[in-house]
């Protein structure tokens, strides 16, 4: 079995259902915590799963450089290596070419990186991205793509789409060749580019949806190249025009996004899957995310506050009785427990948001659910 999507209910463009994977069912909409090095920083697999997560994202570029795909494969694949029993998705390395642009060059064959670890030169082609991701063994691998910066001119956006499509074909071809030798139960998603150009986005989505090589098609389609410098309202506008028009038979994945507000808007637009480093990265910087907005734990106002981060939250930090005063004390002392508890809390909030969204969609009240969350976030931001 590879990966299949069954939709159980739809409310407007928002939808809920089950993504079946070789490592179990995943309810959608779903949020995928980021485990760049094969680990969600500071947390055990059991702690991550307790937040409701059923997919974790691993990063191909980082695992390729260290410890190496062969090491991961030799340990039985990333699931066994990391002790994560649920589904996994691996990015292809295309976003690292964007984020590490000063250490990377692109040509028609792929990317040449200068390793951020030791400076050695490494070439990542579509075929190498497929090979590495097959070795890692995640349930879903992503095609290698070109991610243009936000605000790029139309010719740059179109070139990114053209190259991404060419590489998509090469990825599907590499997968078909590998499956002829040793078939594995691993899905592959294509990545739609196009910046904030709605027409180009729709054109590219249709182009990738129609690709078929050796009887193989992409099992899912992702929207890449968002939250890379474009204005957030522009992202929302494009999502509202594009997401629900991406092939409804396949899962729709919005890559690298985002805030609770982003998820609420994108779910309403028809997106099924999300990943972002924000909840755990912000936690490590002392920021708790709540239904009322952000809480910066180092602020002196919490020095004597006996309340948990969020009295309505059932996470291990809040339900466990850890006070804001105690968490502030730990953070100011540089104690790792503060970062762990804040990470657990933030991931739990995301898990609760998508669980509530699924319930609201089934009940046919997603618009009211979204509005209640957004109104409360707005009120919290106003102070």
Tell me what you see in this structure.
The structure is a single chain. The protein is α/β, with parallel strands linked by helices and 383 residues long. The protein has 14 helices and 16 strands. The chain has an 8-stranded parallel beta sheet with strand order 4-14-13-12-11-10-6-5. Strands 1-2-3 form a 3-stranded antiparallel beta sheet. Strand 1 and strand 2 form a beta hairpin. The chain is globular and about 60 Å long. It starts with a strand and ends with a helix. The mean pLDDT is 96.
Which spans of ≥5 residues are poorly predicted at pLDDT below 50?
none
List SSEs in N-to-C order: EEEEHEHHHEHEEEHEHEHEHEHEHEEHHH
Largest sheet: 8 strands, parallel
CATH homologous superfamily descriptor of the largest domain: Queuine tRNA-ribosyltransferase-like
Classify the secondary structure makeup into a structural class.
alpha/beta
The neighbouring-strand order within the major sheet is 4-14-13-12-11-10-6-5
How big is the Rg?
20 Å
Q: Which outline best applies? A: globular
Strand content: 15-25%
- Per DSSP, the total helix count is 14
Task: Give a brief rundown of this model.
The chain is an alpha/beta fold.
Please give the structural blueprint.
Elements lengths: L3 E8 L2 E8 L2 E5 L1 E3 L12 H6 L4 E5 H6 L3 H6 L3 H5 L4 E5 L2 H6 L4 E4 L2 E5 L6 E4 L1 H11 L3 E3 L11 H28 L5 E6 L5 H13 L9 E4 L8 H11 L9 E3 L5 H10 L3 E3 L2 H7 L2 E4 L2 E4 L27 H9 L3 H28 L2 H17 L1
Parallel strand pairs: 4-14, 5-6, 6-10, 10-11, 11-12, 12-13, 13-14
Antiparallel strand pairs: 1-2, 2-3, 7-8, 8-9, 15-16
Helix pairs in contact: 6-7, 7-8, 9-10, 10-13, 10-14, 11-13, 12-13, 13-14
């Amino acid at each position: 079995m590879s990966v299949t999507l069954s939709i159980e209910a739809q409310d407007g463009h928002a939808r809920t259902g089950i993504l079946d994977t070789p490592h179990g069912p995943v309810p959608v909409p779903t949020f995928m915590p980021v485990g760049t090095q094969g680990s969600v920083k500071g947390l055990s697999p059991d702690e991550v799963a307790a937040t409701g997560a059923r997919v974790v994202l691993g990063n191909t570029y980082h695992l390729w450089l260290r410890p190496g795909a062969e090491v991961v494969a030799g340990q039985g694949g990333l699931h066994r290596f990391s002790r994560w029993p649920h589904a996994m998705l691996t990015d292809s390395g295309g976003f690292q070419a964007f984020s590490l642009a000063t250490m990377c060059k692109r040509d028609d064959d792929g990317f040449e990186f200068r390793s951020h670890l030791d400076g050695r030169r490494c070439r990542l082609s579509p075929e190498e991205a497929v090979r590495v991701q097959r070795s890692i063994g995640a349930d879903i691998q992503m095609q290698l793509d070109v991610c243009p910066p936000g605000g790029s001119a139309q010719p740059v956006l179109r070139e990114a789409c053209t190259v991404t499509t060419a590489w998509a074909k090469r990825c599907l071809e590499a997968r078909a060749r590998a499956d002829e030798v040793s078939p594995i139960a691993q899905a592959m998603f294509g990545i739609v580019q196009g910046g904030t150009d709605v027409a180009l986005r729709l054109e590219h989505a249709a182009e990738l949806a129609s690709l078929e090589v050796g009887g193989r098609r992409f099992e899912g389609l992702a929207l890449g190249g968002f939250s890379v410098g474009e204005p957030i309202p522009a992202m929302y506008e494009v999502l509202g025009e594009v997401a629900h028009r991406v092939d409804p038979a396949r899962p729709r994945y919005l890559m690298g996004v985002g805030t609770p507000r982003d998820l609420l808007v994108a779910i309403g637009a028809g997106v099924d899957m999300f990943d972002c480093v924000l909840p755990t990265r912000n936690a490590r910087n002392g920021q708790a995310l709540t239904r009322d907005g952000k809480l910066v734990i180092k602020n002196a106002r919490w020095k004597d506050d006996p309340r948990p981060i969020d009295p309505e939250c059932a996470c291990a930090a809040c339900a466990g009785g850890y006070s804001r005063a105690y968490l502030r004390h730990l953070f100011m002392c540089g104690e790792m427990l503060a970062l762990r508890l804040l990470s657990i809390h933030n991931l739990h909030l995301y898990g609760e948001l998508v669980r509530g969204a699924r319930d609201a969609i089934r009940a046919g009240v997603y618009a009211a659910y979204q509005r209640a969350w957004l109104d409360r976030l707005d009120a919290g931001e106003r102070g």
